[in-house]
């Protein structure tokens, strides 16, 4: 797991209960905006997410993959998941991203606080990123 993602996981493991949700909401507020030359219409939808989420994987430089996410402000859980992936994986190498365990999000400890359906959305985002990098 890339160091940046491991650090995010560690941060979540250091807090309990509702503090985990508060941290997820902090991440949601920190989701980077899309670059001016990227429109949501050109991005890949992730229909497994309960809220509208779009992602773009720029693997032009496989040593520094760029990830961009778009999710509405009224979907803080989805935005939080996207922001975690952005913080932990943006700028990493394709090989490092492909090596991330598919179920890494279970280490965040959100299972008791967030429905399995919502957690599946995070898994779907990672799966789609990996699929783009393999193709």
Automatic annotation (TrEMBL):
Stated name of the protein: Sulfur acceptor protein CsdE
Family named by the database record: Belongs to the SufE family.
Fe-S metabolism associated domain residues: 10-131
GN (gene name): csdE
């Amino acid at each position: 797991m890339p160091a940046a993602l491991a650090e995010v996981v560690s941060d979540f493991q250091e807090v309990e209960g509702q503090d985990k949700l508060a941290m997820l909401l902090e991440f949601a507020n920190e989701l980077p905006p899309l670059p001016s030359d990227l429109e949501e219409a050109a991005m890949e939808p992730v229909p497994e997410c309960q809220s509208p989420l779009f992602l773009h994987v720029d693997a032009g430089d496989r040593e520094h993959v760029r990830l961009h996410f778009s999710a509405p402000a009224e979907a803080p859980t989805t935005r939080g998941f996207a922001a975690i992936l952005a913080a932990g994986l943006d700028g990493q190498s394709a090989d490092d991203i492909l090596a991330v365990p598919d179920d890494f999000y279970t280490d965040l400890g959100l299972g008791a606080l967030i429905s399995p359906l919502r957690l599946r959305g995070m898994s779907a985002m990672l799966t789609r990123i990996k699929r783009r990098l393999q193709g």
